[in-house]
Amino acid sequence: MGSTTHRFGVRPAWLIALAAFTNLVCPGLLPAAAAQDLEAGKALAEKHCGTCHAVGPIGDSRLPAAPPFRDIAERYSVWNLEEALAEGIVTGHAEMPQFIFKPQEITNLLAYMDTLAKKKPLQEK
Fold this sequence. Notes:
- The longest helix is centred in the first third of the chain and has 17 residues.
- By secondary structure, the protein is an all-alpha fold.
């Protein structure tokens, strides 16, 4: 078989697409480690960000200028923050401290933030 075909005759891109679709449709099938990563992300958010931002699905931010994480997740793809978190987020206001996170911490934090976005159902044609 060619290098673009899996040994079972399925192209790897299809396997990736199938796995992604399965995780969207059946989130309960995620491995237990994924749930632990979300908990680690939530704990990181509460520890480092919760003094200013609302980091949960409800509530107001303690600092009015700090948007709730759920609003950030609704407006933007939180994964766009990955590089900024790795290099250290720098903002235009002095109240925001500079944080630099480890790669796994970034993944955990962004995965948690992503759960705060209200997922829109797929539109039917």
